[in-house]
Automatic annotation (TrEMBL):
Name of the protein this chain belongs to: Myosin motor domain-containing protein
One GO cellular component, as annotated: membrane
SUPFAM superfamilies membership: P-loop containing nucleoside triphosphate hydrolases
Family: Belongs to the TRAFAC class myosin-kinesin ATPase superfamily. Myosin family.
Organism placement in taxonomy: Eukaryota, Metazoa, Ecdysozoa, Arthropoda, Hexapoda
Record has Nucleotide-binding as a keyword: yes
Residues covered by the Myosin motor domain: 1-126
Keyword Oxidoreductase in annotation: no
Coiled coil segments of this chain: none
Example GO molecular function: microfilament motor activity
Length: 126
């Protein structure tokens, strides 16, 4: 059973879609694993027993969701040196900024600019 079917409220909060949607997951033949929902319950119970604060649990799940979404970014080459985001990527950036609590434009810069450390000086290039 997918998380979307199992816990729709959590899936909406995490902006989750079917597992086949994510590039990081759909490259294998093991998208469905028996007992996933039971294991999720066990994990959430373990967090509760260990008194992990709710906001920290949410942050963990949001980070995992963001990693899945990052795998779906498809950059377009501009001139062999620079790249830009596709229309679909713009929507993904919105979701990522929501999940990670980052400003949209700052996140765009992070994914589009390379940072190179040269003699302890940080250089940014497209």
């Amino acid at each position: 059973m997918s998380l979307i079917a199992y816990n729709n409220e959590l899936a909406i909060h995490l902006h989750l879609r079917d597992a086949k949607f994510y590039n990081y997951l759909n490259q294998s033949d093991c998208i469905k694993i028996e007992g996933d929902s039971r294991r999720l319950d066990s994990l959430r119970l373990a967090f509760n027993v260990l008194q992990v604060p709710t906001n920290m649990c949410n942050g963990i799940f949001q980070t995992l969701s963001a990693i899945l979404w990052l795998g779906n970014l498809c950059f377009e080459d501009v001139d062999g040196e620079r790249c830009q985001l596709t229309k679909e990527d713009e929507g993904i950036i919105d979701i990522l900024s929501s999940l990670l609590g980052l400003e949209r434009e700052n996140l765009k810069q992070v994914v589009l600019l390379r940072q190179i450390n040269v003699r302890e000086t940080l250089q940014k290039s497209p």
